[in-house]
Structures are given as C-alpha cells and as structure tokens.
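Listing 4. Sequential folding, example run.
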Amino acid sequence: MRDLLSVLDIERVTIIGHSLGGGVAMQFAYQFPQLVDRLILVGAGGVTKDVNVVFRLASLPMGAEALALLRLPMVLPTVQLAGKVLGMALGSTALGQDLPNVLRILDDLPEPTASSAFTRTLRAVVDWRGQIVTMLDRCYLTQAIPVQIIWGSRDAVVPVRHAEMAHAAMPGSKLEVFEGSGHFPFHDDPARFIDIVLRFIDSTQPPEYDQAALRELLRTDGGERTVSGPADTRVAVLSAMGSDERSAT
C-alpha cells in the first residue's frame, strides 16, 4: 500500500478497511502513521486472536486447492446453490444473514489472481490457531489518528465483541454498531454507512505527525492506562494484551 501511494504521488490518505482489509489498514496505520489522515475499520480482522473457523481452514495447505476447485465447470454454481439453500434454512440467524454476501465474494475467487491474492493475504495473518498478527497491544499508538469503528451487531465472521475491544484499546476512537446487521453493514444500510463516513471525515482533522510523541508512547508502552470501556471489556482487552497475542510487527 505504501508503494502504491508513492507511485500515485499521494502523500496522505484516509483508510477504510473491511474484514481482512481492516487488519491490513490497522497494521498500515501502525507502521506508517505519517501517511494516515484517518482510519475507518469495518468488521475488521486483526483485533485479537479469535477468528472464524472458516478462515482457519482456508489458511491450511489444502485451502488454496479448495479455492482452485471453484474454477472447475459447475463447481461454483453448485457451491452457491448449496449456500443459498443453507442460508434459507438458517433464516434470520447471523450466519444466514451473512451467507448471501459471502457467496457474492465467491464470484470473484475463481479468477486465479483473486484467489491467489486472497490466499496470500490470509496466510500472512491467519493459521490453524487463529490470527497470528494482531494489533491489540499496539492500538494505543493510534491515539493521534482519528479512528471510526463500524460493525454489525450480528456479524458472524468477526463478532461485535472485537469492535468493543478495539474501541476500548484505541483512545479517542468512535464506535457505531449497526443493530441487526451482519459482516457487511455497508450492504445492509448503505445510506447510513455513507453518512457516518462523510460526517466522520468532515468532523475530524488529520493529525500532525510527531516522531517525538510516538517515541515517548513506545517508551511508556501503553498498558492499562490507555484502555477504556466497561469493566468486562477492559478485562478482556488487558487479558489479550498480556497473552501471546502480540503484534507481529
């Protein structure tokens, strides 16, 4: 992403990251804060180690081969039909709500470059144990960057408790939860989503990058004093920070 911005001659950006892209956005803001005006996280991965079992399975060696099967004749339509039947059976459950959007994503995966990019991105941050790259212990470093978190209350891929933990660990962040929405709140209520994003951009100012302040934050190492929110959320965040969920960067 940094190289792309350099090629396009773009000095600073507001980043919106969804799902796995949310994890990429958080890591980018951590590694290159001088390039980030604002950060918007939507149903983002990379908050803590916990991740949907489907992602864990897809990260295994046979995961790429399974995606390659989608390129065979009639395989993708069969999978989509089975998914639609399962979605109807699950009805209004969280998983049933997210299935149609997941099936739309499958439309793009038979393209070799798309499936290869998905597999490489997934394996860089997820293995059979869960997410191996998280930012929870470094969230406090974003306190100078305006952060908007958007989540669906019925997200079956990345549960809404991840949003609450990220909000608690990121000083000054804003949290919007779409009640009844799943992993794709921008599909469920696009007008509200756009309104939140535009209001957030209009109401915030890009930070001045301060290397000395960042250095001091790293020296103090954040910790309990940077975590806010309800007691149970604080306990969950601090517990994750003290576990093996350390940022790979």
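-- end of first protein; second protein begins --
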Amino acid sequence: MTQHNEFEDAFTDTGFWNKLKKYAKTAGREVVEKALLLYYAAQEEQAPKWAKATIAGALGYFIVPLDAIADITPAVGYADDLGVLVLAIAAVTRYINADVRAKTAARMQSWFGDEPGTTDMPAAGAEPASQIHQPRNQEPS
C-alpha cells in the first residue's frame, strides 16, 4: 500500500520549473542546487519508486509557498526547504550519480555563472578517509 502526502501530490514538473525560474535567485544557489540534484535523480531509471516518492515529497514541499517558514520571510524563508532537500538527498544519495551531477552543474552554470558550487564534490562514500575523519576544529588539508 502506497502512502501519499500533500507535498508529494503538490509536485509537478511545471510547478517545479516555474518556482525555480521565479525564485532561483531569492532561494539561493544552495537550495536550487539541492532541488536540481533531486529532480534529476528522480529521472534516473534505476531509482526505485520509494526514492522517487521521497524526492516528489521534498520537491513538493519546496514548491508549496506556505510551509513551516514562509518562503517570503527575509533571510530565512528557504531554511526549512533546504533542510527537507538535504534530508531527501541523504535518503536517495545512491541515485545521485555522475550524470545527475553533470546535469545539475550545467543548469547551475547557466543560471548562476561561475559561482562555486558543490556539484563537483565526489559521490557519497568517495571522499578520502583523511577528509572524513578530521578532528572537529580542523579544516581538511
């Protein structure tokens, strides 16, 4: 039996792209990048239904303007959206492959130019152990 929620039902391709086109700069690079990673991961054939449902719920939450913190609230309006997107990415990270990262990087480049991003980060589990196990108050070398 499949459970649906209002945010999953709120997700549509048109709604997603309209939200990004209208609010990409306001939402900020990090939110947009996370949303794109999820969007493109959902397009992957190997992503199972549960992963696509998780993504649809997170992106639906992003699309809906009245959520825990209204998106129009200055400075913090997208903080809750970012949290939901990050949690969804953690759940479906195995489906965020090199192709998904490349599509995201290309879209980010066209919208934000040469600003630094995170799409060039190695896939989960690919980080060198020296960076994973750094003491808390030290920067990776």
